[in-house]
Amino acid sequence: MSAAANFADRLWQAVDEKRSRACVGLDARLERIPSFLCEETDSAAECLLAFNRQIIEAVAEHVVAAKPQVAFYEMYGPAGVAAFAETCRCAKQHGLVVIADVKRGDIGSTAAAYARAYLGPADEQGRAAFDVDAVTINPYLGSDSVEPFLAEAQASGKGLFVLVKTSNKSSAEIQELQASGKPVYEHVAKLVSKWAQRLPGRRGYSGVGAVVGATFPEQAAALRKLLPGVPFLVPGYGAQGGSAQDVACCFDEDGYGAIVNSSRGIIFAYEGAQWEERQFAEAAAAAARRMKQEINAALGR
Amino acid sequence: MSAAANFADRLWQAVDEKRSRACVGLDARLERIPSFLCEETDSAAECLLAFNRQIIEAVAEHVVAAKPQVAFYEMYGPAGVAAFAETCRCAKQHGLVVIADVKRGDIGSTAAAYARAYLGPADEQGRAAFDVDAVTINPYLGSDSVEPFLAEAQASGKGLFVLVKTSNKSSAEIQELQASGKPVYEHVAKLVSKWAQRLPGRRGYSGVGAVVGATFPEQAAALRKLLPGVPFLVPGYGAQGGSAQDVACCFDEDGYGAIVNSSRGIIFAYEGAQWEERQFAEAAAAAARRMKQEINAALGR
Asked: Smallest Cβ distance to B71: which of A103, A110, A187?
């Protein structure tokens, strides 16, 4: 595969191969990881990694992507960040598209450093700082904060997902302020639409995507119309309340255009009554399979 | 000092002790670090750290705070993040107030992990993930993304600076959209004002601050009036174009209310014609001293 293959093209190829539109959120919290795993490891970071490795192996056939949320690793300082990097590497080795959920956003010269960290080329030893396929970014600082990510993504065939409408309750406070007759998030969508022109793929979609929460289906449907050719990363499925019906509107007529993330609903599925602790990976695989099927069913596929 | 001493009170105490309102931005870029230093070290991360240690030691008497920008460390992966953590520790040991410029922002459960990482208590071994006094955060997700930082800061006497009006050119694209007759950043300011009530100090200022760029002095002056009792972190001095006159409007009548950051203008001052490479720390100290004096002069202090 050419290094500059478009990110969206790669994503839909994975969707075709796996018949799945699901993404697993690798947001491990120590206190919810089976205790026997932590007893077998020497540190919080090692325990997270041991958990993630087994989850990744178990769910890889049912999900197209993995989205580790870096906050849960930064919590444990540099060792935690090393576990994050290793988690990304492991997910990639298992054939998953890796989306680093970092929500970075800063002025141009700083954004360039972040872009390099997550989307940049490997060094002479063949190691990238973090070996991922895409990142999430925060648009509050405007175009010059996004430009360095576009430049790196263009060079490397990687992708980015810009926060447009997030899944949390207070997202309305700023994102839904009305400016010139439309909410702020639609203004952001308009910028995303412009940025997306920079990374065109072969199948009508850009390497520039949008984060659109599953918890606000009406707004998601409106955004789908506003942003043809922009892949959606849809958080909020499962634990946060979004259903397969809720996310259906994020897809196009052909069943592309979005991937849907579930974190806790997959990785902590073993907490359900029918499972035992030692079955955590099996439970995660079952939850991922069910999610994949639910979404496909809602799309009639 | 009680663990719950208010962040702003500690900040103004440092201002009193040092007669300085300057903050040094520790945004080291490998390609601008004197080459002899890198030849003496084994990795990029070690070189950054060696540079920072000498800069911190040299400027500590002239600045009240240090603001490492984490992007420049994340660039080098986990080892870079370890250098970031060590840089924070070193700045603290030299008596500086440490502001981690991380601009994090995420949904509540994730924000709690970030808040814990940067403002949370130390573990049983007495080590915090990152031992800093305050962080910068991005408000795009609204109150529930800020709440965990407020809770941690309240418990620990630490602080936060919320992005209100940033120093970069395209900050206008979203921050200056007009909603109900005022720009988005003033709506954010109103939220900051509300959040600030949670962390009152003894000297009329809150532990909740605002990031207000020095490059837009008129807007900064308006924000100073809108946000009494909210400390400003003012980036954009020096290399980005802000002058001592530009930042004067960010202070109150008594010369408190703001600290001003310069990164490249201090740490790479040795690039000026009158210095040699080996004098980089001396050059930084001279630049920090001059900045301190310029700001004090502009305030008539």
From this structure: A110
